[in-house]
Amino acid sequence: MSAHTAQTELKLIGKLILEGELRCETGLHIGAGKGSLEIGGADNPVVKDSHGRPYVPGSTLRGRIRALLEQATGAAVPSELVYLSKRKGQEVRIHQSDRPDDEICILFGRSPGRMEKVGGGDLDSNHATPARLSVFDAPLVAESITPQMKETLDDELTEVKSENAIDRITSQANPRTLERVPAGARFKVRFVLDILCPEDAVLPGVLVQGLRLLEDDTLGGGGSRGSGRVSFSDLKLVWRGQDFYAAGAAEKEIASGADLAGLQSKVREAGEGLIAA
To answer: Which of 40, 83, 178, 210 sees the fewest Cβ atoms within 10 Å?
Structure first.
């Protein structure tokens, strides 16, 4: 439980920068929507940058980590959820509360105002909490798609997975195709965690917990059908205090070349000293 209260004063103490690699253990599909369909192409293409290279949007990674943390902490229940959208067929439910010690709302931010609770009633909140966590788009590590991999891919950088949905009455097949980034591809990830008060010392541990949950879950679409298993490696965590930005002081390296288990151990050992000025 967080020690934050309604009287906690917020002022930038420093930033924790976490960088590393996300590796696709199975094919990864993060959809681009139907607007990019091409004749002869996959039914469900992956999102690509302006150079035609697949990437992992920061919003996708951030949203998945948040959803997993909500589930793990019991916050994904009707009494804890509010509607962001009630548009039929496109309902969006998300956790939000007005509790000052709610670690998920502290980490991901919240806006004041009235929202309808999924369990009934309204949430009237006057608390505006700035998001501590920023998650950046993760570009593809080009050399992770090797020449040997390219020889078997359907496109230069992606594969097409064919699937069939079978009607239970007529046994009629409904074929579909799913474009995926192949297993073995790697992406450069970057997370920035703003530390705005001493009570924020618990947040690095919450972030690492979310990343560990993701490794044993899935990212993107088709997770229940084999897609989207990922892992994190070569992680580097550094601390940049106010003097780094104001006077050019050196950053403090906390972990380097770590996996998530090693990073979690380093964060736990450092405790409140992690954000010492």
So the answer is: 40
Burial tier of 223 (Cβ tally within 10 Å: 0-12, 13-18, 19+): middle
In a domain, 19, yes or no: yes
pLDDT averaged over the chain?
Answer: 90
Q: Which among 61, 68, 33, 59 has a CA at the least distance from the CA of 48? A: 33
Show the tokens assigned to 56: 């992992």
Residue 166 structural domain: 14-275
- Residue 4 within any structural domain of the chain: no
- What is the C-alpha to C-alpha distance for residues 143 and 147, in angstroms, rounded to an integer? 9
Residue 222 lies in a domain: yes
Nearest to 4 by CA among 202, 277, 209: 202
pLDDT tens per residue across span 114-150: 888 888 888 887 778 899 999 999 999 999 999 999 9
Domains held by the chain: number: 1
Supply the pLDDT for residue 34.
Answer: 57
The span from the CA of 65 to the CA of 213, in Å, is 8
Is the residue at 2 inside a domain?
A: no
Q: What sign does the CA torsion over 46, 50, 54, 55 have? A: negative
pTM over 0.85: yes
